[in-house]
Amino acid sequence: MSICPICNGLQEIHAVCPSCGKIVHDAGRIMDYYDDYSAYMPIDQLKLEDGYPDDLINQKCPHLFYCISCGHDQVIMVKQWVKGASHQ
Q1: What pairing do the DSSP bridges indicate for beta strands 73-79 and 60-66?
Q2: What is the pLDDT of residues 43-79, one digit of tens each?
Q3: CA distance 71 to 25
Q4: What is the DSSP letter of 25?
Q5: Which of 7, 28, 86, 87 has the most crowded CB, counting CB atoms within 10 A?
């Protein structure tokens, strides 16, 4: 079993916009934007249909980040934590 440290509030990502250099903000999992009910569906099921072919196998969670300064958005693949492994 694995969990996303960002989705579960265990870690934060501090990234900068590649366009303007300002801080980007996490807008959540990309799958949550698919339709009205996607936020309530099982994550592993959505990963089979999200367009990122290796995220389920490589245990990564795609998060949408956006820049409030210039409007640029990007998807950052967050490595999920595996139960029983050390996370530093």
Answers
A1: antiparallel
A2: 666 666 655 556 555 788 889 999 999 999 999 989 9
A3: 11
A4: E
A5: 7
Question: Residue 7 and residue 78: Cα distance in Å, rounded?
Answer: 10
- Close Cβ partners of 32 (under 8 Å, ≥ 6 residues apart): 38, 39
pTM: 0.73
Angle at 49 between CA 30 and CA 66, to 5 degrees: 15
Smallest CA-to-CA distance from 56 within 43, 71, 67 is with 43
How do beta strands 60-66 and 2-3 pair? unpaired
Contact yes or no for 74/18 (Cβ under 8 A): yes
